[in-house]
Specification:
This protein has 94 residues and is an alpha+beta fold. Helices cover 28% and strands 37% of the residues. A four-stranded antiparallel beta sheet has the order 1-2-6-3.
Length: 94
């Protein structure tokens, strides 16, 4: 897997913003097959920051109905990345 296929997109939510301000943690959506070591290396290589720890969260897809047809939303995996003291990462400002 390449670093670009591991990190999908940042998750810009109110809860994520609060975590960033209080604890210097960043939320990103990652490839469901990626492990913590791969996620850490990809973040350090892509954004040139030092990562202290990585926590992952799997969320399974839910059943959705559109009239008679039934479908599933896709499974997701999120990562909560704790940056070392003094490190800063801002997706909006660059």
């Amino acid at each position: 897997m390449t670093v670009y296929s591991i990190i999908k997109k940042p998750l810009l939510t109110e809860k994520g913003a609060a975590m960033k301000e209080a604890y210097n943690k960043v939320l990103v959506e990652v490839n469901p097959k990626a492990n913590k070591i791969e996620i850490k290396k990809a973040m350090e290589e892509l954004f040139k920051v030092k990562v202290e720890s990585v926590a992952t969260i799997k969320s399974h897809g839910k059943k959705k109905r559109w009239g008679k047809s039934v479908g599933m939303s896709s499974d997701r995996k999120k990562a909560v990345i704790t940056l070392k003291k003094g490190e800063k990462l801002d997706f909006i400002e660059g």
